[in-house]
Model the fold of this input.
Amino acid sequence: MSNSFLKSPTPINEPVKSYAPNTPERAAVTAMYDTYFSEKIHIPMKIGGEEVNSKETATMHPPHDHKHSMGTYSLATEAHVEQAIAAALEARKTWALVPFAARAAVFLKAADLIAGPYRARIAAATMMAQSKTVHQAEIDSTCEFIDFLRFNVKFAEEIYQDQPTSSEGVWNHVHYRPLEGFIYAVSPFNFTAIAGNLSAAPALMGNTIVWKPSDHQMFSAKVIMDVFEEAGLPKGVINMINGDPEMVTNTVLKNPDFAGIHFTGSTHIFKNIWHKIGSNIHTYKTYPRIVGETGGKDYIAVHNSANVDEVATAVVRGAFEFQGQKCSAASRIYLPKSRSKAILDKIVADVKTITLGSPRELKNFMTAVIHKGSFDRLAAAIDQAKTDSDVEVLVGGTYDDSKGYFIDPTVLVTTNPKYDTMERELFGPIVTVYIYEDDQWEETLKLVDATSDYALTGAVMAKDRIVIENARLALENSAGNFYINDKPSGAVVGQQPFGGARGSGTNDKAGSRQNLLRWVSPQLVKETLIPATDYRYPFMDA
Ligand code: NAD
Done:
């Protein structure tokens, strides 16, 4: 092994490819999509580097074409979960001792594989599995994932370099040990990059992982595992299993070596897991690290000095890209009465031009929502709005699940700032607007702050600088990521570390140094160069 202190490459955000007609990336991704569509695959579990199959399987279907089968994947029994934990603990014995540069090299190589030979594969798999348009697949499964992998190496290097000072005769150093035990990663359906990063970040710091992807992301989860394997990740460092989430989680959480959870998903599930960890606390050898990024009810608060076109564009992009299925999607909008008609007219005109359909048709701005449960929940919210007297459907309000789970982009306008859809995370293409009297701006900011249990993202749109500063202060605790004159979504790794507080999570900022610090347990070593040989101190001299 090298004795040198290696310097990791300086990360630069991966440029987003355009996929415009006649570009090589467009040809590659559509060809890959067609190949995937013509095949049926089976996805085994990955335990200790081996493919493991079980009797029980589940099927996979593209949300935009739910009668089509993409294939099957194996479901874990309790014994498989135990096997995955054992494999992680076995792998830890060597992985925790591997020098940082070697660990970093695996993930830097993974980033380059995604940027190159795996780019079309991971994007096409994300289009198929999660119904992302090619642009949404590109900014997630390729660019964001690559950025997580490359920037985390730089952040890890900074952590390892952070050493205490030493005084005369003493050398102090800190060893950033991986956590003692294994890490449980539980990922959501909506971001392939998050699914990969939830395991990769703790693994980079020397930990080993049991990873449970979402049932609705399995097809692209397989590509993630293929990339890690191709990059040289040793067997057992990341073990992928799926199965009944309750059973898998309960089995993991009763294990004494459980050392931490890296979770992204909905708030109620995270709270439930936290509760179970608390109940099992006497079982564990160490206090587990609990890191969770969860739901949001993200707002745009518009002042009457804001620009109409800028507001309308922020709402349409913020609310409807990826069918509103981003934790950061704009879902409650506060408009001043004097500008509301102009803004809403522009939003309605824009929404009427949005095309919905398969991501294979690249002209579409939106595709289907993830599954029947989501479709039914959104359709029910729309139906309810049609009957409630304090809300009207301004545009949209239609849906059709005959081929795929399609919900048309829908704008609701309510006279009740506490209307259900102003408070509840719907996770779909429904945005609710509340119109306030222009002279009620400060009261409206209090309303924005107090309306939801979440505090993930939010935006203020205004021209007046004093207004912007006052709004930032008034809304300080209402968002972990706060935007000025922008939509509240689209965080870029290395530029806008992401996470929220209150009901939205532990705010450990994915893709940052702060997140990586959760996966190490520092050990301070004080070495005395010439130890004392007499217990007496000078002050004791006569
Ligand atoms: P989800 O909560 O339904 O599922 C997340 C994961 O939890 C999945 O792997 C699922 O199988 C697992 N799970 C389900 N039931 C469980 C149980 N009883 N015990 C243990 N695990 C269980 O979320 P989703 O629909 O996949 O994703 C959408 C949610 O994720 C939204 O609430 C969204 O806001 C949130 N999200 C947050 C962020 C963020 O950074 N804050 C990012 C992405 C998604």
